From TrEMBL:
This is Peptidase M23. It is found in: Cell envelope. Its main location: other. It comes from the Bacteria. It comes from Enterovibrio norvegicus FF-454. It holds the Pfam family Peptidase_M23.
Length: 422
């Protein structure tokens, strides 16, 4: 899907920019960026369609604000190495990480993500950095007058398009599903959701059928890579096994029974005292700028066991100059949790953990005023209030939502069955 790129920086000289300026504006409309040796997107133009900004009229004069460098992350890269090669001081990187403390987006960079650097006249000071995770998700860090950076998230809603993938079992489920156009990741989601209902290696026979409703995000006709499974129907000898995504982000079977293991609310074995609440609009007491608090803090003494709030896989173990020793757990599909400022980490990357399992000892690593657990819950990559979010705690769709749920089940079934009898 992705083209391999040589490990080089694309440096754009000032004279080149002048020459390329005009043609880039027109190129942006139609050219498939993937085929460009240097991927350049005139940001001012794409920003004008972003929802975070008030609707603006087409600019009468287009200002080209091209980055000085663009770099596609390769596996094994480290950011400090990239900064060193570009001659940008390490102190700038530290300031970026400080701005990133409440988001930790820099730590989520992976191969094929794109970095764009804007530097000042001397070419040595970073004025703006953009991380492009995909065409619908970017983050920008902009230099402020006081020398710190401010983070801005750019989310393009795009269009989500539903499709149904359907097929017959012929060989394994995985092979049959891939043949019907489902991805490796889709197969993972399906088998993990239905693992208690069906034994995928034994229960399916040739001639059994399956249908899956997928939604995929498109931006200007291009897939962003973001997708989700919304409905699953596997017909084992005519008896359907089903899963449906409800508006709360959780999956249920056709009777509204939850298919995901429950979460617990607190990242410790008891209900601790909250010392700082989730507050995405928190103002910094000195600068007055918005400095979101994307988690809930629990005041606990150093050495208190920190437990995973749900079943999942440890996807990250890091030591961050400001967030300290922290862990990220992926709970499948939509939820991730983060646990910051630990004194000791007891799990390793790739390890499977269960709800209530001890994963760390609390502490005061990173920049903190006292020992505490900073706990975050991310839903589809966005921080939500971990004390209030709808997480799979109940075992079924709440009664008040049952009518709506049944309606969407009927709609999904109609889509899937229509595909089956084609
Ligand atoms: Zn905190």
């Amino acid at each position: 899907m992705y083209e391999k790129k040589p490990k080089t920086f694309s440096k754009l000289s000032k004279s080149m920019l002048g020459l390329m300026g005009l043609s880039l504006v027109t190129m942006a409309v139609s050219v498939n960026m993937k085929n460009d040796p240097i991927r350049i997107i005139p940001l001012n133009i794409s920003e004008s369609v972003m929802p975070s900004q008030p609707a603006v009229e087409a600019p009468s004069e287009i200002v080209i604000d091209l980055p000085a460098y663009e770099y596609t992350i390769q596996s094994g890269d480290s950011l400090s190495e990239i900064f060193m090669k570009l001659g940008i001081p390490y102190s700038d990187l530290l300031k970026l990480m400080e701005a990133d403390l409440n988001h930790l987006r820099i730590d989520t960079l992976k191969p094929n993500d794109i970095l764009r650097f804007w530097v000042d006249g001397s070419g040595k000071h970073l004025e703006k950095l953009e991380l492009e995770f995909n065409i619908a998700q970017k983050v920008q860090y902009k230099l402020l007058d006081d020398g710190s950076y401010e983070l801005e998230e750019i989310i393009v809603p795009g269009k989500w398009i539903q499709t149904v993938a359907a097929g017959d079992i012929e060989g394994s489920f995985s092979v049959s599903a891939r043949r019907a156009g489902l991805s490796y990741n889709d197969v993972e989601v399906i088998t993990s959701l239905l693992k208690d209902k069906i034994n995928f290696s034994r229960d399916l026979r040739a001639g059994d059928k399956f249908e899956v409703v997928r939604a995929e995000q498109f931006v200007d006709g291009q897939p962003s890579g973001q997708r989700e499974i919304q409905g699953i129907r596997i017909e084992r000898r005519g008896a359907p096994i089903t899963a449906y995504l409800h508006s709360d982000g959780n999956y249920y079977d056709n009777r509204g029974e939850s298919l995901q293991s429950a979460f617990q609310r607190y990242p410790m074995t008891y209900k601790g005292r909250i010392s700082s609440h989730f507050n995405p609009k928190r103002k910094h007491p000195v600068t007055g700028r918005v400095s979101p608090h994307n988690g809930t803090d629990f005041a606990v003494s150093t050495g208190t066991p920190v437990v995973s709030t749900g079943d999942g896989v440890v996807v990250m173990v890091r030591n961050h100059p400001y967030a300290g020793k922290y862990i990220v757990i992926d709970h499948g599909n939509q939820f991730r949790t983060r646990y910051l400022h630990n004194s000791k980490i007891l799990v390793r990357k790739g390890q499977r953990v269960s709800r209530g399992q001890k994963i760390a000892l609390s502490g005061r690593s990173g920049r903190v005023t006292g020992p505490h657990i900073h706990y975050e819950l991310l839903s589809r990559g966005r921080a939500v209030n971990p004390m209030k979010a709808k997480i799979p705690m109940a075992t079924s769709v709440p009664r008040a939502e049952m009518t709506d749920f049944k309606k969407s089940v009927a709609a999904f079934d109609k889509m899937m069955l229509a595909q089956q009898f084609k």
